[in-house]
Amino acid sequence: MTYDLSREHEEFRRSVREFAQAEIAPHAAQWDRDHHFPVDVVQKMGKLGLFGLTTPEEYGGAGEDGDFTSLCVAIEEIGRVDQSLGITLQAGVGLGINPILTYGTDAQKERWLPELVAGDKLAGFGLTEPGAGSDAGATRTKAELDDGEWVVNGAKQFITNSGSEITSLVTVTARTGTREDGKPEISAIMLPAGTPGFTVEKAYDKLGWHASDTHPLSFEDARVPADHLLGAQGRGYAQFLATLDDGRVAISALSVGCIQACLDMSVAYAGERQTFGGPIGRKQGVAFQIADLETMLHASRLLTYRAAWLKDSGAPMKDFRQAASVAKLYATESAVTATRIATQVFGGYGFMEEYPVTRFYRDAKVLEIGEGTSEVQRMLIARGLGLPVE
């Protein structure tokens, strides 16, 4: 069995690659230096249909012409030239659109999805807090019903696509009560941008992903109608865990794009850079490192698209979840290693910001953290094997 992409997927890959080379690659370095979030290019991505690849036609999406594998292809190709725009697409679909598409009411879908799918607007998802990341059960943000409205108080951090000029809403997890077993009841509440009491704090000064929109959020008696509950009350934590399964594969695709970029840059540089009377690619010390990049690329891509295939084929959820964690763990750690190798191949120039390899080096580390850290992936994989790991 192989996981080669179909002819349609390969044609789609070429179209996204052409877009990325024309619209993103020439400007990525400047956006990174300026910490600039390019709204116009994000909206062009929407016009290309990239935000609607998993959405039915009735909301403006690709319908039967799109699937999860197509989304991974798009994320890989965008991430190959700019990881910031890659994560913008990944989060815009995986954390913004998909929760509404999966758990929203018909009214919620009709209200929010068309603009999100078109790329005219973005949505974020707020789970992480100062004291609750992987331990989402430690959520402290609260939402209480009062006279037909949810009143939200608390704070979130590291939230992507949450404070741009085209952000339309952020869905947040919040305590809405206590379960029979004494544990907190976690629900998901949709908060439109501009809601009184909903404050988008100053953007983070990050190590990487400089062109991505990321903010801490705070809520002080932020009130929204009761019908802004997303999904069933008390099911917010379970909904988010399911959302993360898809997100892990999408982050894997972003990592594959990073590895491919490192390989491309290293091969080109090793053929051009001359030392001791010849190109450095003649030296085994360099050539073998680049060979390792090629190996990591193939393994990461196969793991990623196998997981995507399991999703699209309707495989048992247990199988998909295990494949998602395996792909996420291997591809993200490989991406971090790939950027280190590529930087070493470039030598002193690899330490200079004028070379794209430095940007990929900075961007890669967070891949091992977002959508579940490497430690969490190892825990999930072990549990999938039947081990009673805590």
Write the layout of secondary structure elements.
Layout: H1 7-24, H2 28-34, H3 39-47, H4 68-81, H5 83-103, H6 106-118, E1 122-126, E2 142-146, E3 149-160, E4 167-178, E5 184-192, E6 198-200, E7 214-225, E8 229-230, H7 236-272, E9 274-275, E10 278-279, H8 284-312, H9 317-346, H10 356-364, H11 374-384
Parallel strand pairs: 1-4
Antiparallel strand pairs: 2-3, 3-7, 4-5, 5-8, 6-7, 9-10
Helix pairs in contact: 1-4, 4-5, 4-7, 5-6, 5-7, 7-8, 7-9, 7-10, 8-9, 9-10, 9-11
Description:
- With 390 residues, the protein is of the alpha+beta class.
- It has 3 domains: 7-122, Acyl-CoA dehydrogenase/oxidase, N-terminal domain (Butyryl-Coa Dehydrogenase, subunit A, domain 1, Orthogonal Bundle), CATH 1.10.540.10; 124-232, Beta Barrel (Butyryl-CoA Dehydrogenase, subunit A, domain 2); 237-384, Up-down Bundle (Butyryl-CoA Dehydrogenase, subunit A, domain 3), CATH 1.20.140.10.
- 51% of the residues lie in helices and 16% in strands.
- The chain has 11 helices and 10 strands.
- It has helices at residues 7-24, 28-34, 39-47, 68-81, 83-103, 106-118, 236-272, 284-312, 317-346, 356-364, 374-384; strands at 122-126, 142-146, 149-160, 167-178, 184-192, 198-200, 214-225, 229-230, 274-275, 278-279.
- The strands form 3 sheets. Strands 1-4-5-8 form a 4-stranded mixed beta sheet, with helices on one face. A 4-stranded antiparallel beta sheet has the order 2-3-7-6, with helices on one face.
- The longest helix is centred in the middle third of the chain and has 37 residues, at 236-272.
- The chain is globular.
- 53% of the residues are buried.
- Belongs to the acyl-CoA dehydrogenase family.
